[in-house]
Structure formats: C-alpha cells, structure tokens
Predict the structure.
Amino acid sequence: MQNARRITENTTWVGCDDKRTYLFENLFPIPEGISYNSYIITDEKTALLDTVDATVAEQFMENLNYVLKDRTLDYLIIQHMEPDHSAIIARLVRKYPTMQLVVNAKTAVMVEQFFEEVDPKRFAYVKEGDSLNLGVHTLRFYMAPMVHWPEVMVTYDEHDKILFSADAFGVFGALNGNLFDDGFEVNETVWKEARRYYSNIVGKYGVQVQALLKKAAGLDIHRLCPLHGPVWSNHIGEFIERYDKWSRYEPEDKEVIILCGSIYGHTQDAANKLAMKLSKLGVANIKTYDVSRTHASELIGEIFRASHLVLACATYNGGIYTPMENLLSDMKGLAVQNRTVALIENGTWAPMAAREIRKRLEEMKNMCIMDNVLTIKSVLKQSQEGELEAFARQIVDSLNK
Ligand SMILES: Cc1cc2nc3c(=O)[nH]c(=O)nc-3n(C[C@H](O)[C@H](O)[C@H](O)COP(=O)(O)O)c2cc1C
Ligand SMILES: [Fe+2]
Ligand SMILES: [Fe+2]
C-alpha cells in the first residue's frame, strides 16, 4: 500500500521511514529511526527530487507509482549522490527510458561512478542559478558545495516558495506520520536530534553552510523540504537561526558540560564533586557525561551547544584514555572551535592526560584552555578541597564574564 502525502497542490512527499537501520552511516545510533524524504512535482512535466535508501526501495516505488499513475517521470533531480538518497537511481533509469537526470557537472561524475550503466546522454546539466520549467512550477538551482558533499545543490520552487534543501535542515528520527512541523510539538528533544544531526554530519563545513544561508536569505521561503525529518513551515526562522549559530561555531547556551573519561570511577568521582561545587557556586544546568557510556555523536551535539567544557580524564598507557582520545579526534574532525575548556587529569604514577589533551585542543581553533589544571593522583583527596574550589571558581568567573 502506498504511503504518499501531499504537501501542496502538485507536490507530494513520497519518502519513507526506516526503523530497522541501527546505525546511520553505519556509525550514528538512530534509536528513533530516520526518514528518507523524496518529493515529486506533478505539473505539465513530472519531476522527482532525489530517491531513497535501498532499505526502503519497495515502499518508495509504491509511493511513486501511486502518484504517477499512468504518467511517466520526465525528470529526476539529483541534489545529492550519497547512497541514502541515490540508491534507486538505476532502477528509475531502467523504468523510465525518457527520464532526464538533472545534475551538475560534479553530480554526473558521481552518477557514473556509482552506476556504470547510466548513459551520459540522460544528463541534463544545470549550474548555479539555472532554472527548469515544469509548467506552472519553475525550479531554480543553487549549488551548496560541501554541505556536506561536493556535488550538493538545493532547489527552489518559485511557484510554491519551497526550498528543497538536500541534507541541510535534516533531523534524525522517523516521522511517525508527523510530516509537518505544525503537527507535533517541536520541543528540546527535536532540537537535540537536529543538533546531533547537524554537528556530526555537516559540522565540519561551517563556512560552506554560511554560504548556503546567504543564498537562502535572498529567497522567500514558505516551506523547507529537507531529505531527512519533517517538512518545516512554522519553525523556519528558528531553524535558520540555529544553523547560523552552529555554522559559526558559536555556543547556544552559556553552560558547563563535564566530559569524563574514567576507567575505575575515581576520575568520575572527582567530576561529580566538581559538579556539586559548581552548583553550590550558583551554576545551573550542569551536565556530566561518561565518554565511555554516551555515544560520541551525542557528546558532539552537546559540545556544539555548550560554551564551557570540563574534560576530566585518566592517564592511559602514558597518554589519553581511549574514549576521550577518540572524542578529541572527532572534535578536531568536526572543526569544533570557540570553546572554553578546563582540564582534570588523573594518573597513578605519571599523570599525562592534561598535557596530551592540551596538545589536541591547541590543534583546534580559538579554544580557550584554562590555566588551572586539577591533577589527581589516583583519588581526589580531602586536602585538595581548596584546589577543587579554586578550579571551580575559575569556571564560574569565566561563565560570569
Ligand atoms: C590500562 C591502564 C593504563 C594506565 N596507564 C597509566 C599511565 O600511563 N600513567 C598513569 O599515571 N596512570 C595510568 N593508569 C592509572 C589511571 O590513570 C588512573 O589513575 C586510575 O585508573 C584511577 O582512575 P579511574 O578510577 O578514574 O580510572 C592506567 C590505568 C590503567 C587501567
Ligand atoms: Fe548526505
Ligand atoms: Fe542524507
């Protein structure tokens, strides 16, 4: 049975929910699933914007067949070649022998790499600002290189004032019927998943996102149709504001998160005592995470949100405890910058973690590393109460700046 849903008179969502994939990109946990969105415009000509992941191919074909009925598909607009959106291309090429693939020069190369059988005669090339007229609807294409692949382009429907934004403005989580953002509560949980998606998938490309936001600012957008998650109309302004912050690597909240790498719990214990101390000094909304326990993608989301990080870490084989080392590598890879960081280290014979973490942080841009490092030899001692107090106070002072 089909599961398509109309958005405007001629534009229909023909995407699918996926609740079986355990890890998105075989990397990021998606406990609430994910949607792969695909949109079809049925005007004098018919145009499909992207396909879906192979896991939901059959449902997608049912949706598409239902909307097209006995019509053919004239255009497949390929905004992004990542396989979660491009897996069905060869199948459509076979099914619709006159269908043109609307691509830019970079996309065409990737189509040929993924699908040998596609005849290059099928390509209809577009570049920045080009348009495609379907009848009533005119579509205009804007390049969005490296958001987050080089060939990405977005499409603006001048008739419906819809921006089809490719992976930008995507959110983890299946739709569960909530295709439109006025049909469910857009609460902190939703923003948390939007942030986790952004920071882990697009986070590295802040400069390129800024370029896309500049182009979007020139458009009158009534609806945002991304390739994952809901269609946005009521919260477009707020979403764009958040994208602007995230892509400038500016924290959303002046808050402290304590990220703890502890093998046997003693470093964690110090982190707990710091949290209590901070709270006594008036700091609100402190969050503590065990980097071994919480998935790195969640930690990255939190690091994009908060202004102040405390990294508390055990020394491990002369270096940084592995889960913390991995997190630091993710932070660098995703271009984390502009954060204030305080360091706690533990070591039973030669504490090294703080020195090594500092080196990693210095490879990132504009990280303010606090001078006062708290060093623990195995266990935080009663005699270190004053040290802990001073350590906490430097964080409070910085927060109050
Ligand atoms: C496998 C392993 C390697 C360690 N390597 C070091 C080290 O190189 N230098 C050091 O001072 N402590 C080292 N330690 C001790 C820890 O840094 C830490 O002091 C101890 O595990 C207590 O803290 P925790 O309860 O937070 O894990 C090591 C511990 C383990 C289990
Ligand atoms: Fe993608
Ligand atoms: Fe995607």
User: Anything to note?
Assistant: The chain is about 35% helix and 25% strand.
